[in-house]
Amino acid sequence: MSTVIGVQGEERHEYTKAESRSLRTRSLRLLGSLLHPVRRMLWATLAIVVVSTAAQVAGPAIIAYGIDQGLPALLAQDWMPVGLAGLAYVLTGAVGAFLIAAYIRLAARISQAVLIDLRTRVFLHTQKLSLEFHESYTSGRIISRQTSDLDAIRELLDEGINQLIRGVLYMVFTAIALVWLDWLSGLVLLAALVPLAFLTRWFQLRSQAYFRRSRVASAKLIVQFVETMTGIRAVQAFRKERRNEREFGELVEDYRDVNAKVLALFAIYNPLLNLMGYAAVATVLLIGGFRVVDGGIEVGVLLAAVLYTKRFFDPMEELAMFYNSYQSAASALEKISGVLEEEPSVPDPADPVDLWTASGDVRFDGVEFAYTPDRVILPRFDLDIPAGQTIALVGSTGAGKSTLAKLIARFYDPSSGTVSLDGVDLARLHPKDLRRAIVMVTQEAYLFSGSVADNIGLGRPDAPFDEIVRAAKAVGAHEFIESLPNGYDTDVNKRGGRVSAGQRQLISFARAFLANPAVLILDEATSSLDIPSERAVQEGLQTLLKGRTAVIIAHRLSTVAIADRVLVMERGRIVEDGSPDELIGGGGRFAALHSAWQDSLV
Ligand SMILES: Nc1ncnc2c1ncn2[C@@H]1O[C@H](COP(=O)(O)OP(=O)(O)OP(=O)(O)O)[C@@H](O)[C@H]1O
Questions:
Q1: CA distance 328 to 304
Q2: Which residues cross the membrane (predicted)?
Q3: Residue 602 has what pLDDT?
Q4: 470 contacts: CB under 8 Å, gap ≥ 6
Q5: In whole angstroms, how large is the CA radius of gyration of the chain?
Q6: Which atom of ligand 1 is nearest to the CA of 405?
Q7: What pLDDT, in 10s, does the model give residues 444-470?
Q8: What is the pTM of this model?
Q9: Ligand 1 pocket check for 245: Cβ under 6 Å
């Protein structure tokens, strides 16, 4: 394949030429679209840099004039040339200072505008991407995109570009000024360029590999950190700290090791660079000194030539560094543009069908489903769930219950066939109507940081406070909410640190009750609640289910009792379908499960 699409191949180190080209084009397209809105400021910045650098470079030439023309005139009582030189020198300094101030402000505005634009695009886009993307692209990676990658781009914008443009212009202007002032000294400088170019190229080639390794190592550190912290409960429960410490230690060691190598390279490059600078200055001084004695050039010109030669080497070190910040930013841009290129696998319909009030009739027609083409999870099947029916989905782990539920919520589209609500294919239903009509309550009952009322209010953002309370009362959550320190205003920490698992479920029931969907899908928590909590949750559940179609992934057989119909799934197929009583009496799998459950109660 000659192109890399989206985030695939992101972890690879090598690309074919055609792939590299396609990645570069993609990055440049993104960069172009980011810079387009700020193009006027960019041109203004460039003009400022050209003028300010020219003003800076004029300094030594003015000094040469002051010495060579001004001093003899001064001896003849003529103050004019020295005065002019002094004034011109101060003026160039003032112009330079003023322009640099303008430059810093403009450059900061450009970099801020570009970064905010990019950050927003990445956030909005990843939020829009379907569940399929998020189930395979870990949160550590997405955080890397938003943090270290954006940082690399910020560094390039804030410092790299500045170094490049100013450094290159400075060197070019200095070389021109020197050749113009005294071509022989200019020749010495040009001769010094040859070893300089070799040295810098050597440094770049050696450091490039190290910098790449350093970036990989720091990305791994972030991923490890994020995964540990998001899974901190499991980490502590399974005493994984030691192993994490060891793994983290190895990553840190790797990172330290590669950075030490980079520093070692700098320890060679910088001194050699300095040495070359000194040698060039000494040569210019030596040759120039003889020529001053011979009367070939004047002292002021020699002084200017020495200053120019010395200054010529100043930006070199930064220029060598630019290459690396450029490399980091380029690879960051490649990855970010990959994420931005990903399309939602469950696209919004081009011409959506409106469905104002759904009755809740769900149908699967010839549906087949596979996450990956090589493994069918749900073989072709039909299923009709009439409006208002409560279905309990049971079956062993991995049987495909959640997958079936995700198809109803249209987190995924079927590989073939259609899932429809009131006869409208979900893929054609207006996304707003779909989200209003079908709500899925997941096992973890996620609570966002904010108050309890905010969390319930998510079900219907325009709901007044008394409706929120009504919803909480309906599902039996009101009492415990009232007993919280600030009642409905209590801040629930992320993942509901302050409320128990059962209470969290009740809050999510209240949220769903407020949303009042025609179809409710509920992934029942597997965690065993204590009996009073379980009873409270069961009661809340019954109120919640009234008057709507419900599909419950039932882990507790007590839940099955309140269902109108039970579907038993086995390896992606519905193997039993009937009312709880029918199935218990039928002697099939469900009957076996049920009698095992009853035995466990005795
Ligand atoms: N995102 C995914 N990508 C690929 N395969 C998946 C994905 N999610 C689930 N599967 C596979 O699909 C099959 C059905 O999984 P599913 O989660 O639907 O089972 P389940 O019956 O809900 O199980 P459980 O009761 O354990 O939650 C499993 O074999 C699982 O490995």
A1: 38
A2: 41-67, 79-104, 164-181, 187-205, 262-290
A3: 58
A4: none
A5: 35
A6: 18
A7: 778 888 888 988 998 888 889 998 998
A8: 0.78
A9: no
Q: How far apart are CA 118 and CA 124, in angstroms?
A: 10
> Is the beta carbon of 374 within 6 A of some atom in ligand 1?
no
**Which residues, at least 6 apart from 498, have a Cβ–Cβ distance to it below 8 Å?**
484, 490, 491, 492
**Ligand 1 centroid to residue 568 C-alpha, Å:** 15
Instruction: Decide if 362 contacts 513 (C-beta within 8 A).
Output: no
Could you tell me if the CB of 572 is within 6 A of ligand 1? no
Domain locations in the chain as residue ranges: 18-341, 362-601
Amino acid of residue 207? S
Q: Transcribe 171-238 into DSSP letters.
A: HHHHHHHHHHH-HHHHHHHHHHHHHHHHHHHHHHHHHHHHHHHHHHHHHHHHHHHHHHHHTHHHHHHT
Please choose from 377, 407, 415, 570 the residue to mutate so as to test ligand 1's pocket, defined by most ligand atoms within 8 A of CB.
377
Determine whether the shortest distance from the Cβ of 400 to ligand 1 is under 6 A. Answer: yes
- Amino acid at the residue 104: I
For the domain made up of 362-601, give the CATH fold: Rossmann fold (3.40.50)
Whether 402 lines ligand 1, by a CB cut-off of 6 Å, is: yes
Residue 323 pLDDT more than 60?
yes
Q: Which atom belonging to ligand 1 lies closest to the Cα atom of 400?
A: 18
pLDDT of 496 reads 47
Nearest Cα residue to atom 26 of ligand 1 = 397
Question: Does domain 18-341 bear CATH number 1.20.1560.10?
Answer: yes
- Separation between Cα atoms, residue 492 and residue 453, nearest integer Å: 10
CA of 401 to the centre of ligand 1 (A): 8
d(CA 597, CA 566): 16
Atom 2 (ligand 1): residue with closest C-alpha?
371
Distance from residue 302's CA to the centre of ligand 1 (Å): 79
> 324 pLDDT exceeds 70?
yes
Helix (H) or strand (E) holding 267: helix 241-294
**What's the pLDDT band for 530 if we cut at 50, 70, 90?**
low
Residue written as token pair 């400075």: 170
Say which residue the tokens 């991923």 belong to: 223
* DSSP secondary structure of 519-549: EEEEE---SPPPHHHHHHHHHHHHHHHTTSE
Phi, psi of 458 (to 5 degrees): -55, -30
